[in-house]
Amino acid sequence: MLLLLTAYLSKYYTFFTVFDYLSLRAILGVLTALAISLLIGNKVITLLQRLQIGQSVRDDGPQSHLSKAGTPTMGGALIIFSISISTLLWGDLSNKYVWVVLLVMLSFGLVGWVDDYRKVVQKNSRGLPGKWKYLWQSVFGLAAALYLYYTASTPAETTLIVPLFKDVAIPLGAFFVVLTYFVIVGTSNAVNLTDGLDGLAILPTVLVGGALGVFAYLTGNIRFADYLLIPYVEGSGELLVFCAALAGAGLGFLWFNTYPAQIFMGDVGSLALGAALGVIAVIVRQELVLFIMGGVFVMETVSVILQVASYKLTKRRIFRMAPIHHHFELKGWAEPKVIVRFWIITVCLVLVGFATLKVR
Q1: How far apart are CA 188 and CA 269, in angstroms?
Q2: Among 48, 91, 95, 163, which residue carries the largest CB count within 10 Å?
Q3: Alpha helices in the chain (DSSP H)
Q4: Where do the TM regions start and end (predicted)?
Q5: In a 10 Å sphere around its CB, with 0-12 CB exposed, 13-18 middle and 19+ buried, how is residue 283 labelled?
Q6: Against a cut of 0.90, is the pTM above it?
Q7: What percent of the chain has pLDDT over 90?
Q8: What does residue 54 show for φ and ψ, rounded to 5 degrees?
Q9: Residue 190: pLDDT over 70
Q10: C-alpha angle 1/250/89, rounded to 5°?
């Protein structure tokens, strides 16, 4: 939005040409989203308290969590709002990828909002039934996958890049739609499963989102892409602004979500942010690197799958409780220790993800 204004003003004042630089707009995107989150965060918390939109806590989980009951939830709406405003202000609104990511985030956020609303406002413990939640996630995920497939202008946009191997690129054809669908829906649910402790999900999301922003910048620059032997996807660099806004909004939310949390993001936030990470990874052709950098999300998801499978097959549980962060709590780890250690793991995995750019 402001890019159009600065482009007009640059005809009369050359100073405004500085806003053509993607790096500057990304910095402004971080600061804008962070400022919005910090400025209205307390007001959102107060509003949610007044509306009595509080978190319900499982009585079969760690006893330390019982004190969290009633903490305002659905705070993910604050993150989504901050990201959206910042992106609309500093992003190039003629770029199709910006709109794809925004719409995916908003649509998955809507699914999460309905689930949260039914749980905390209508006091329906089931929330949105699983089959309906998965159905709508599938609808939105598949719509994004089909759009990206049918608007792809080069083979590189639908080719699977294998990290560490400079000559291994697998043309996916129509299978691109299937892969994209699973990446978007899978990442959305993985972040949702991780969001069980104060700040546990949001900082890894910020770290992975920031890293994907770097990948987007490199992928959208033909010189860098050629040098690093990664596919060049025209226009994908603009996603750096979205990723920057995500980082700013996430850090602003962490200000209130850090232990002990004043607010939780709820499904409205976790489903939306996970889906956004998934679709960005697809656009910049780094699905496998997302799998590496988002290792904490993967670990949480796999722990649930293994727990359910083991109990159904053998009537025995592998972990004391799933997702795995609860397992460590029940083993005696303090909640902040679990959170910070998972953060450290994410930092290491993001660095490994960056290393794949050169180890080819």
Answers
A1: 10
A2: 91
A3: 2-9, 22-50, 76-90, 96-120, 130-150, 175-194, 202-219, 222-228, 239-257, 266-283, 287-293, 295-314, 324-330, 335-355
A4: 12-40, 73-91, 97-114, 134-152, 172-193, 200-219, 239-256, 263-284, 290-311, 338-357
A5: buried
A6: yes
A7: 77
A8: -115, 155
A9: yes
A10: 5
